[in-house]
Amino acid sequence: MKLAAVTNEVAPLTGAGTLDTILRTAVDHGITLFEARTVESKRFPLLTGHAWEVLKGAQRKYGITYTAASAGNFIGMDVFSDMVALHKGGLWQMSMDMAEKMSTDTLITFAPQRSGTADKAEFEQVVNLLGDVVDSAATRGIKVQLENLPGTWADTSDSCLALLAAVNRDTFGYVWDTGNLYEAEQETFEAGFEKLKPYIRNVHLKDGQFIDGKMTWQHYGTGMTNVKGQIDALKSIGYTGTLALEAARIPHIEGDFEASLGYLRTIL
Questions:
Q1: Within 13 Å, how many C-alpha atoms sit on residue 244's CB side?
Q2: Disulfide check for 112: which of 74, 163, 165, 189 has CB 3.0–4.6 Å away?
Q3: Structural domain count, the chain
Q4: What tens digit of pLDDT does each residue of 93-106 get?
């Protein structure tokens, strides 16, 4: 398995001109794989010109490889929103263009929010929407990964499985985000893993637990999601893909990344 950092999860730096420090921090800890997400408070691909040049230049400067990019497609909207067409069109096109310039062949997408009705017809619209973005990416040699998120049509293990099976494209895989699943299901990963393991192409690692009814992110090994069990399960299927460290707590403080990375290396 390969460790990857995430652009907004390494250090609590969000201001202009801080990206280089974030990249260098991960490299200093032996990590040269990165997922591009939020950069200096702006979500990929809507970056400032300077941040974009730093992001691209890090490939030469630090030997960084971008394993995936995530534009946050369809977050916060249901399938009936007029924003969906903008995300499917301009935002997705820009994401593909910039992914090619970063030499990454993988984009991450989310599913739309469930509406108040959330019926079978709406599910079919979501399936068609995701199928369209996957097909458009495939024409350019880009693979797509579905990330689970509470409140969306890909919130629980069962709902993710339903979408993955219905879209049914060879270039459509799954980001196993165990922290988000725990938040949605309030149970550990085992049953969901058995259902989803054929689709797993990427892993987002978070740890935490519910405190006073609210999901609280914690350092790896101190929460209830069972990070060690997740690693053991991935080993059991011969998984060799990326483990993206979503190590930031809320509030994000200095040392979060280092603490969770240190624990993770003891169990790999």
A1: 26
A2: 74
A3: 1
A4: 999 999 999 999 99
